[in-house]
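user: At home tonight, take the chain set out below, taking as long as you need, and be ready to discuss the fold:
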Amino acid sequence: MRTFSLIILFMAATLYTHAQQRIFLYPSEEGIVIKGFDTTAPFMDYFASANPSRKKTAILVCPGGGYSHLAFDKEGTLLAKFFNENGIDVFVLRYRLNNGKQEGHRYPDQYNDATTAIRLIRYRAMEWGIDPDKTGVMGFSAGGHLASTLTTILQKGDPAASDPLLRIGTRPSFSALIYPVITMDTSFAHRGSRNMVLGPNPDEAMVNALSTEKRITAETPPVFLVHSDDDKTVPVMNSIAFYTALKKNRVPATMFIYDHGGHGFGMAPGDPVLSQWPSLCLQWLKRLGFQ
């Protein structure tokens, strides 16, 4: 009997890993992919929950990796499993990257991938049973910076646009930022992410434009923040600066700062304290009416 149960669990896990749809963001790779650098065009993996509602909440997840690689499983597919089990659909984004030789992509390529992704989700929302007004973003580390640009650099839909995607606004319904890179200011920036997204010698205007704590307005959606006080890679001041600006602009915000955890703990499955944050995020979404 036990052997049979283990087989069933294995089959369920196998089915889950394949129960996804890969959606490429652009109809053509021309002007998107750099030959000799990119191994794939930008895409998102769609993990649909079993929730029968036609008004589901959806989260676009941006994994971290310093804008040079992606922690796609640790900060993507594992989160998808958790939120799927709680009736929320998840899209894990594979956005464009760079490398130390600056052979890849800088801003605005990554931002364009994120805005295109959220527009695609909303465009096909009826097909997937998703409520376009319950479509948010979550990002980790450098992916948190990308999510914060989507949160603060807002594009309204243009009803007259010939491209139907451009008729759709990009403002997320909510935003969850987990140990995020926020500022590009060298005082407490993550220099690796800054170098990958802006290049080695960015002008001051671009540094300010991509320091997202400076872009918060009353239009910014509600934000959930998680960080550890002992993060030596991305200092906790990134989240504190963002939270302070949110409160200054009277944007609803919740922040959890843990006294341990360092950087890149993901869902922290081995830590009884840190591992509570996904459930806290779920409670936050419920409180705001997004679940």
About this structure: Residues 2-18 form the longest helix (17 residues).
